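User: Some background: our group keeps a shared notebook of sequences we're curious about, and every so often someone picks one and asks for a predicted structure to add to the entry. Today it's my turn. The entry only has the sequence so far, pasted here. Could you supply the structure so I can complete it?
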Amino acid sequence: HARTVIKSPSSGDLQSTTLEDLEKSKEPLLDYLANAGCLRPMRSLRDRDLLVHDIVMFQVIHRVQGPFQRFCEGLKTLGVLEKMRRHPDSFRPLFCYEPHMLTADQVDDLFNIHLSPEGSNRRAAEEMVVTFWRDYLQDAEEGPSKLQKILAFATGATAVPPIGFSPAPSIEFIHRGDGDFSSTPIFPLANTCVNCIRLPLHVSYQLFKEKFDFALGNTYGFGRV
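Assistant: Of course. Here's the predicted structure to add to the notebook entry:
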């Protein structure tokens, strides 16, 4: 109820234009206001703004003050809180989310590519697909959220966690006869439990792009496409 009062200017206390309206809007919130220590007599419409201020102070500050203090006590372990106070800029990315656009190079750097032994026939086919993968990432930069979709396809996350992924994202390749496959699949496969993409061995970039686009557009939840 409190969130409705604070966040919805079209209802409740914020839109009360008479004392009678103000009292009516308070009635459903009496228990909450009493628990929050925000009960006050309404003598004028000015008290409406004071009431909203009290509710905001309770929701944002007083309600979380106890847990916040316990959190600080925990951070004192091993001197973490002291280090945070000395180096706030270094710790800020761990505690404060700062959205930023992914780049193709950033996504590429996240993935460890598992290649077959050098000199093998498999290695030559895999290296060709690696160039397709990197070209695909470069093309994906042109879209507003395609790199996020690629990351989510592999890991289930649309952004890189502050402490990184565990395990690190990886790329493997699907060869004819691998595992349960009697023929080479044409779509990429993902296992978000281990942050892994398995890429089919296409021989042209256009086919690689077409099948990857289809995979991104038709993936719902976890598992194989």
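Suggested note for the entry: The longest strand covers residues 170-174. Residues 46-75 form the longest helix (30 residues).
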